[in-house]
Amino acid sequence: MNSEEIKKITELIENKEPDKVKELLNDLHPADIAELCNELNAENARFVYLLLDNETAADVLVEMDEDARKEFLDILPSETIAKRFVDYMDSDDAVDIIREMDEDKQEEVLSHIEDIEQAGDIVDLLKYDEDTAGGLMGTEMVIVKENWSMPECLREMRIQAEEMDEIYYVYVVDDDERLRGVFPLKKMITSPSVSKVKHVMKKDPVSVHVDTPVEEVVQIIEKYDLVAVPVVDSIGRLVGRITVDDVMDEVREQAERDYQLASGLSQDVESDDNVFRQTTARLPWLLIGMLGGIGNSMILGNFDTTFAAHPEMALYIPLIGGTGGNVGTQSSALVVQGLANSSLDSANTFKQVGKEAVVALINASIISLLVYIYNFVRFGASATVSYSVSISLFAVVMFASIFGTLVPMTLEKLKIDPAIATGPFISITNDIIGMMLYMGITVLLS
Hints:
SLC41_membr_dom; three-stranded mixed beta sheet; 6% strand; four-stranded mixed beta sheet; magnesium ion transmembrane transporter activity; 64% helix; alpha/beta; Mg_transptr_MgtE_intracell_dom
């Protein structure tokens, strides 16, 4: 929605004209209504929700930004949340909403859910870690038994389908609820006379365990081009399914977290967050950067006699620091990307370091040679700066490349998000080490 449409609807809300507002809302997708509600205060958002039917209201709530949604839900009684929203949501969406509440309100909302089976499913899902398949899955599925006849199978599918918005796959289980296969809908048309479901099902479908990390679920769905993946427990019983739209939301959130880590933000923030939250997210790495800068100044302060003898050396401090930071960030970014899409394994650390060392050798040789030619023309072959800067630059590029490769792979082994290695951490470290190499080499060659 553009700003003019939002302004128009806001004015109608403030003027208490529900019929006109409702007329405008009827033409909007739930995602567009959610965008509108994100821009409204909690009371005006409540005005909008009262005009929506229950199913649309539930869809809109799911699409809202977390902060705006939390502010809105804080003003609603638990009974209204349960009967107006949760009752009309898929279990995975309901869990996402309830998980944002404190424990007391969670219990209140759950106590007002009339469907005991739905409430039980939500309670069970809340037990799983939100970063695992169990925390992401929903329980709405069409399930058939492997020994059912085709007429019985079709009859049960019609009954189950009435309570679902979308059907991605039909899952086949045995009498102990263990996943056995996927029933191809095409077989209903091409093989209607087959006696048993197990004779036409696709056996051994791709599945994930309830404890499988979300990142691995994303990779599996991408690798096998699935629109949904079944989730099984420790003994192979079918307990839920994860759809591609849930995965896409998780991919976007993970990408945002990694980008912020790489940018030096210590926590998840949005552009519309308050000043205090934005300050606390940015300040830690800025303080670390400040300490790094002070460390650099202390290193350079110990070489005042060197600068007095060769003042032109000071001209290349930005070049050494900037090149080291850029090279380190490039190397770490490639490694983090490889780890994220599973094209790179932390078990192959030494192989990757060796490959990066060869690339670094080529880049370092070209860069240092170009700088040497420049200094040769400007200062002459006998000047200390002509060869000390080139040798230092070569050493810095080699170190930064290997360090930028080694750090994220080490962090991955330690189960720490390697995205942190693509940000200020690498730049600050390379800056300090680069200055030490530069000054040390210059002193040795003077």
